[in-house]
Each structure stands twice: as C-alpha cells, then as structure tokens.
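Much of what follows relies on a compact textual record of a protein's fold. Think of the row as the fold of the chain written in a discrete alphabet. An example makes this concrete, so a full record is given next.


***
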Amino acid sequence: MISSAIIGCGRIGCGFDDDVSQNKKRTHATGYSTFDETTLTAFSDIDPSKLKKYGKKFSVENLYEDYNQMFENLDIDVVSICTLSDSHLELVKKAAVSGVKGIFIEKPISDSLENAKKIIKICEENKIVLLVDHQRRFESFYHEMKKIIASEKLGQLQSVHVYYGAGITNTGSHIFDLLRYFFGEISTVFSKESKSSSPNPLDPNLDVVLEFVQNFNGYLHALDLSNYGICEFDIFGANGRLKVDLL
C-alpha cells in the first residue's frame, strides 16, 4: 500500500468535493482515499479548521499545521503539494530530504522559470517521480482530440486560436500544456497584458502569440470572465476546421 499525504487542504486538495452535486472525483483527497493502492495518511495545512473538517471527512488522524513535523514523524511515499506556487520549491526540497518517492504538484509548477527548473532538478537527482496536475492529458476526450488533429481530416495545420478567461496562470497553465500536447514544442512566445481584465489582479489575462516548431502560429485571446465563461480551441487546417468548447 502506498502512503500518501496532502499539503494544502484548500479547494483542489479537499474542498471541491464538498459540492455533492458534482458526480466525479475533483480533489487529491478523494483520489487517494478511493484508490485501492493508496492510503491517505496525513494532512498538513496552516488553517486548523480545515484540518479538523477534512480530517473528520476523510478519516485522517495525522493532522499537522507544520509540514516539517509531518515529514519528521511519518514515512510517506507520495505527497501532493496543493499550495500557492511561490511555496512549491521549498516544499519540494523538504519532501525530497524526507525520502518521498513521488510528488504530485499543483499547477503552475512554480512562480518562476528558474524555480521550476530547480524543482525538476531536485526530483531528478533524488529519483522522485514528479507529476504536475495537468490532468487533461489523461482524459480520453483529449486523446481523441489529439488523434483528429494528427489525422488527414484537418490536413496541414494553419493556425490555432484559443479563447479564455480567468488568468494566464489559472487557466493558461492548462492551455499551454494542451497546446504542447496537441502540437509539439513552441519556439517563440510574444505576449502583452490584455485589455480584458482578469478577476484576480495577481493573475492577469494576457494576449499571446506562439510560434510552433511545426511552422504555424497559435493565438491566445483573453476575455473578461464576467462577460464570457469560455475556454475554446479553434483549429484551422488546410482540409478542415476543429472547434471545441472545453468548459
């Protein structure tokens, strides 16, 4: 049995599954607690009320406000890091020293490219399996979408347009991962802050132009979430067009 722990008992860690109307697993806690090969061993969060609430809900007895104590007291195989991105590097360092075998980290991986590279290097040096929560790569819908893009139905790709809101970090991290999954690597990026505002001033909307190695362009068009709850891909090929609403 694989022992697992979660640092950060907020929405993605535990809270989204408070909404019982959603008929699917939406949190790390529900994933670990319902998978046959994992046991949910511990929670760590600076908010004692969350620890009490979700400790009771998921029958987790090991509750820590200080993640250092959690690592010192328990033998954990896999840890989910569900905190803000500026804390990720320090948490990965602590997890690596503790001897974990796997780290499941929330997107975005970090708050800077430099720190992201450090996180990857730490995991490589310590032979830790690192997974960023770009979960769409594992859904059958996106696998089928990738097959259509690669098929002769579309023909040679001309351009791809993405319409989104809710910030370049929150929504954009998924978009960039899907673009690389569908179309391969990106050679050049140009961006500017959009005139369509984001609901989070710390996570702005950006309008972006991407040049793919495959020699065509992609465009991210930001929209105000209060006017449009949207995430659409519009893909143009020489033989056809694929338009998909991802919400």
User: Anything to note?
Assistant: The longest strand covers residues 157-164. The first helix runs from residue 28 to 34. The chain has a mean pLDDT of 94.
